[in-house]
Amino acid sequence: MNILQNIHAIDVHAFSWCMARKHRIGLARISRAVSFSADGPLYGVIAVLLWIFEYQALASVMLLGFLLERALYLILKRGFKRNRPEDALDNFKSFIVPSDQFSFPSGHTSGAFFVAYCLTEVFPDVGLYLYVWATQVGLSRIFLGVHFPTDTVMGALLGSGCAALMIGVLM
Predict the structure, then answer these.
(1) From the record, what ranges are coiled-coil (predicted)?
(2) pLDDT tens digit string along 6-36?
């Protein structure tokens, strides 16, 4: 249990550093838009467009992969029950109201990295842009005050891992 306490202490320190940035309010405004882009409906639109433009295999990977990713995400959220920064830290208020109670892992980050990985597999020329976007999604969740840094790191690993698995199985 000591290792988890040490990780949490480092996480709180890194989170506090982010929250102490001079332009934190401006970063939070930008972060709202970036975070909104990963809310989920966009992913459905992407899957439909892939299907329409004859990328049925990739659309299937995205549909089945999201089912796997969301299942694992929910198991981890309910298993770890890590409090969000607002609940874990004294005198801290996040910029937005999160969609659920627990922090670990970041679902927005997981979804963004899942999409980035899947689309890069078929469209490698846009991979850099997709991963920059996915990384910005993870950072936005920290700057909005709803996730600690390790929540987003684990979200990125979860999304990428699920995408790699589904692509390996279905493509």
Answers:
(1) none
(2) 888 888 888 888 777 767 777 888 888 898 8
